[in-house]
Amino acid sequence: MLHIFDTTDEVLKGLADYFVRAADEAIAANGRFSVALSGGSSPKKLYELLASSTYNTKVDWPRVFFFFGDERNVPDTDKDSNALMAKIALFDPLKIHQTQIFKVNTDLPPADAAKAYTDGINQFFNHQQVVFDLVLLGLGDNSHTASLFPHTPILHDDSAGVKDVWLEDQQVYRISFTAPLINQAYKIAFLVYGDGKAEAVRHVLKDATDIDEYPAQLIRKDVDWFLDKAAAAKVV
Questions:
Q1: Beta carbons of 69 and 36 less than 8 angstroms apart
Q2: Non-local CB neighbours of 201 within 8 Å, separated by 6+ positions
Q3: What is 2-228's CATH number?
Q4: Looking at residue 176, what DSSP letter applies?
Q5: What is the pTM of this model?
Q6: How far apart are CA 96 and CA 231, in angstroms?
Q7: Rounded to the nearest 10 degrees, how much is the dihedral formed by the CA atoms of 230, 231, 234, 236?
């Protein structure tokens, strides 16, 4: 479903409200809310909003458990770390306990870090099928999401787990959920705004399927897209 708003602030408020509803539903049903966060500048604004006085009392935060849909292969003290960004924007302001935060251990080699994260997720879900209550995603200008980048082997991985991803053009590793793991989630929400994203949104939602060129097409279709009018300009 497309949720289209006039401004960035309205997009962020719409997704924050959606987050609150998803948390309430999951906690009422199962006593806890499992959410996989995305990295980057766009979700940082969402996390800051959730930690603000407007939202910080709307969620039963001690019952929320946080994971990361992808992570850069850097120490968690590095400025490029998704975990550090979430710590500053969300975890510290809300005083989230460390036992509620599941970070990728980037002290390990990338393949080992991916395996350890898969094992930790499976343990959290008692070795049953892993179904996150919510997976938050962004969208890159090249139509990637999480660290599912164009023309990388992970795009053809049919396992529901976490894998290391080598980005040849950047000469760096990332660690990412596979598409099957994302697609098992109860809810999936994309946060995308700005006219610079309009072409990528069009590729994913309107073009013929070509997952190597437009990896976000791997994500199942019944998801929620939170867009501003600029990002949605080429699909409506």
A1: yes
A2: 139, 192, 225, 227, 231, 232, 234, 235
A3: 3.40.50.1360
A4: E
A5: 0.96
A6: 33
A7: -80
